[in-house]
Amino acid sequence: MIQNKDSARKIADFLLQIKAIKLQPDKPFVWSSGIKSPIYCDNRKTLSYPKIRTYLRQQFTSAIQEQYGKPDVIAGIATGGIAHGALVAQDMGLPFVYVRSEAKSHGTEKLIEGEIEAGQSVVLIEDLISTGGSSLKAAEALKKEKCLVKGIVSIFNYNLGIAEENFKKAKVNVTSLCDYNTLIERALESNYITEKDLKPLQEWVKNPEGWKK
Prior knowledge:
Layout: H1 5-17, E1 21-23, E2 29-30, E3 36-37, E4 39-41, H2 50-68, E5 73-77, H3 80-92, E6 96-99, E7 112-113, E8 121-129, H4 133-144, E9 148-157, H5 161-170, E10 174-179, H6 180-189, H7 195-206
Parallel strand pairs: 5-6, 5-8, 8-9, 9-10
Antiparallel strand pairs: 1-4, 2-3, 6-7
């Protein structure tokens, strides 16, 4: 679900302007899973731009307050959600933790870094949602600590059907500040792409695994 359409359009413009997102339907990227994709997303670049970083923090905070109220803790999902999560926690005056992609192989072997207690409510911050796998893994880690996961808020969502199914099955709420449909809409309106590019971009999101095979 998109939090705010006008805000989503503005964020799409920002992501395109700084090339945090690249669209190349004629020269697709290859994901680690082997899927060919016309889009590449690196939202870490937003941290280098104070104006954009601030706007995202404000929109994260607004989305959390409107959708989930005020949780006890903000949790960043490694690695892209850590910095943004810390900024949001500071803005809201809340404790911050982050969830590793894998438990440490040494020392305390922690999966969650920071102080968190059973019974606390948590909202997770993510930079990007594709299939939802890493987000749900982080949510599950917090649930194992007997925390109440109120939801996940991401900067961007690819709008893949598999992600929607995964979140629904896991009964985890997800909200995104911007998404794939908004992005390609703005890319066309701003002449970042042409009408010729639009069809393959629309086809990809319907069937990423079978696209370009």
